[in-house]
Amino acid sequence: PDILKTTESLFKILFSGTFFKVIFTALYRVGAGLISGIFLGIILATLCHKFDFLSTIFSPLISIMKATPVACIIVLLWIRMSYTEIAVFVVVLMILPIVWQNVYDGYKSIDNSLIEVTNVFELTRLQRFRILIMPSILSYLLPAIITWVGLAWKAEIAAEIMTNSNIGRLI
After folding, report:
1. Distance between CA atoms of residues 153 and 170, nearest Å
2. pTM of the full predicted structure?
3. DSSP string covering 138-166, please?
4. Going by C-beta distance under 8 Å and a sequence separation of 6 or more, which residues neighbour residue 65?
């Protein structure tokens, strides 16, 4: 099509009543999945750091989650969930392993001699967290945020296209 017909079609789509509803629904699903995945990943990594046996249990599961294609997860979830729930859950399953790995690596990067220093100076748990743990974890988390957001969008759009919901229905 020529540029005029393409521009005309673009404006029809932009000013239709469904366009912004679809976009905001997708934003909501990505946001809910990101927040849930980040929250669960941080909690799980913290528990795995505190209790080594949990790390032994969850490390293979996290590796499987990383290696499994998004399409396979969507098809498996489609058996048990409605299409509206699948998009959020797929985002959580794609984000959680990356968050877990980054937080876990952040904990492992803390030097034992620095932990001893915080013990010598009798820092409270909050002070220890603020001065020692938080900077170590953030140095691993912040660079990965771009990866999380990109992967979340990819997973959400794939889920919607495969389940023919929201954006998938319009395509």
Report:
1. 17
2. 0.83
3. HHHHGGGHHHHHHHHHHHHHHHHHHHT-T
4. 93, 96, 97
Question: What radius of gyration, in Å, describes the C-alpha atoms of the chain?
Answer: 21
The C-alpha atoms of residue 64 and residue 50 are separated, in whole angstroms, by 22
What are the helix and strand counts (H, E) for the chain? 10, 0
In the predicted model, is pLDDT for residue 167 greater than 90? no
Asked if residue 84 lies in contact with residue 168, where contact means CB atoms within 8 angstroms, the answer is no
Report whether 46 contacts 133 (CB < 8 A). no
Q: Does residue 127 surpass a pLDDT of 70?
A: yes
Largest Cα span, the chain? 73
How big is the chain, counted in residues?
171
Residues 21-46 as b or e (16 or more Cβ within 10 Å = b): ebeebbeebbebbbebbbebbbebbb
Residue 171 has pLDDT above 70, yes or no: no
Q: DSSP 3-state helix, strand, coil percentages of the chain (rounded to 5)?
A: 90, 0, 10
Residue 49 pLDDT? 94
